[in-house]
Automatic annotation (TrEMBL):
<dbReference type="GO" id="GO:0003677">
    <property type="term" value="F:DNA binding"/>
</dbReference>
<dbReference type="InterPro" id="IPR013324">
    <property type="entry name" value="RNA_pol_sigma_r3/r4-like"/>
</dbReference>
<comment type="similarity">
    <text>Belongs to the sigma-70 factor family. ECF subfamily.</text>
</comment>
<dbReference type="GO" id="GO:0016987">
    <property type="term" value="F:sigma factor activity"/>
</dbReference>
<keyword id="KW-0805">Transcription regulation</keyword>
<dbReference type="Pfam" id="PF20239">
    <property type="entry name" value="DUF6596"/>
</dbReference>
<keyword id="KW-0731">Sigma factor</keyword>
<dbReference type="InterPro" id="IPR046531">
    <property type="entry name" value="DUF6596"/>
</dbReference>
<feature type="domain" description="DUF6596">
    <location>
        <begin position="170"/>
        <end position="262"/>
    </location>
</feature>
<dbReference type="GO" id="GO:0006352">
    <property type="term" value="P:DNA-templated transcription initiation"/>
</dbReference>
<feature type="domain" description="RNA polymerase sigma-70 region 2">
    <location>
        <begin position="11"/>
        <end position="72"/>
    </location>
</feature>
<dbReference type="InterPro" id="IPR014284">
    <property type="entry name" value="RNA_pol_sigma-70_dom"/>
</dbReference>
<keyword id="KW-0804">Transcription</keyword>
<feature type="domain" description="RNA polymerase sigma factor 70 region 4 type 2">
    <location>
        <begin position="101"/>
        <end position="152"/>
    </location>
</feature>
<dbReference type="InterPro" id="IPR036388">
    <property type="entry name" value="WH-like_DNA-bd_sf"/>
</dbReference>
<dbReference type="Pfam" id="PF04542">
    <property type="entry name" value="Sigma70_r2"/>
</dbReference>
<dbReference type="Pfam" id="PF08281">
    <property type="entry name" value="Sigma70_r4_2"/>
</dbReference>
């Protein structure tokens, strides 16, 4: 129960503390101390009536304690009014977590630093988890976060909610953050993170109704999340082709489709692909064409890897393998590169090559469900025939 509350409330508590002290570092540390104290107190005394309010109050006191200890923050401390008298200023943004995203997406920071800071502060992701999202090592991501925080302090980057007319300028990074949070939840079976991203996506659509990409991102997340209950069976991953469609959330699929307005932006193209993948039969040629469009828009090697899956369905595994091998150097640290390559090699009858690729994917995977799936594929390699239905889409 305590762990569930922590997962659900981390982002709100940090967002509230950032609004209070205007310092992400201080807010994160104060939140960590509040959650640590809660672990001890709640286990002994039981849950308080309002856990979030308890955490915010304790966190604010911890933040004040830290600022008092640090001489360089003495002036800032004097400016801080008592917690009970410091309501957040009214803004156009309807949720403190969404405010935190816009705060962290300050244009003075590099785009990757904005996303990483937000994932750390809002999602409570570890440095290793953020590194995996960016396909870099934990040490590399640690250095990036340190540089970003140093720049914030050294340059005096103000942590204040931007005026309403400045929101569209930060929109691109905000959308990237939301989608990374969703993907982290979807890929690692963290339902709370995926639900949080969808919830914030809905508010973003309400906040910026004339911007097409927020609607497209919400559609994309809904269409993926609609298949969540069918992605696992008895705790094991199930590939797209083998999923029980009766377990798909048809209401989410319909809502996602209704949000599709055009296919010009990158999220709109991805949403269109996700929509095609909910059809029966799937229009794989259409999926491949849309991935080609997306590749032109983004230049992403991951997009090209995904296109290989559609190419396998339309032109066969050998053509798809050529696409995969073309991006292998760029994505060597990406587990899906190796799992996709393994599947294609297996379908081509190269079982030795498939086993090598499965082992490499196993080295990189981070979830138990994916590990068990890959271990089954590796064990079956050489002992089963080919299956034209098999593919890496999940």
């Amino acid at each position: 129960m305590i762990e569930e509350i922590f997962r659900a409330e981390w982002g709100r508590v940090v967002a509230s503390l950032v609004g209070f002290c205007r310092d992400v570092d201080v807010a994160e540390e104060a939140a960590q101390e509040a959650f640590a104290l809660a672990t001890r107190r709640w286990a002994r005394d039981g849950l308080p009536d309002e856990p979030r309010a308890w955490l915010v109050t304790v966190g604010r006191n911890k933040a004040i304690d830290r600022l008092r200890r640090e001489r360089r923050h003495a002036e800032k401390l004097q400016l801080l009014p008592p917690p009970a008298e410091t309501p957040m200023p009214a803004t156009a943004i309807p949720d403190e977590r969404l405010e935190l995203i816009f705060l962290c997406c300050h244009p003075a920071l590099a785009p990757e630093a904005r996303v990483a800071l937000t994932l750390r502060a809002l999602g409570g992701l570890t440095t290793a988890e953020i590194g995996r999202a960016f396909l870099v090592s934990e040490e590399t991501m640690k250095r990036r976060l340190t540089r970003a925080r140093t720049k914030i302090k050294g340059a005096g980057v103000p942590f204040a909610v931007p005026n309403e007319d400045l929101l569209p300028a930060r929109l691109g990074t905000v959308l990237a953050v939301l989608y990374l949070i969703f993907n982290q939840g979807y890929g690692d079976q963290r339902v709370d993170l995926a639900a949080e991203a969808i919830h914030l996506g809905r508010m973003l659509v309400e906040l910026l109704p004339d911007e097409p990409e927020p609607s497209a991102l919400l559609a994309l997340m809904l269409l993926h999340d609609a298949r969540r209950d069918a992605r696992t069976r008895d705790g094991e991953l199930v590939l797209l082709a083998d999923q029980d469609r009766s377990h798909w959330n048809t209401a989410q699929i319909e809502e996602g489709r209704s949000l599709l307005r055009d296919t010009r932006g990158p999220y709109a193209v991805q949403a269109a692909i996700a929509a095609l993948q909910t059809e029966d039969p799937i229009d794989w040629a259409g999926v491949a064409d849309l991935y080609a469009t997306l590749r032109e828009l983004t230049g992403s090697a991951v997009v090209e890897l995904n296109r290989a899956v559609a190419v396998a369905e339309t032109s066969g595994p050998r053509a798809a393998l050529a696409v995969v091998d073309a991006v292998a150097v760029d994505l060597d640290g990406y587990r899906y590169l190796h799992s996709t390559r393994a599947e294609l090699l297996r379908r081509l009858g190269d079982e030795a090559g498939a086993r090598t690729a499965y082992r490499r994917a196993l080295e990189l995977t981070t979830t138990d469900a994916e590990r068990r799936f890959l271990e089954r594929r590796l064990a079956a390699c050489g002992s089963s025939g080919r299956s034209g239905r098999d593919g890496p889409e999940m």
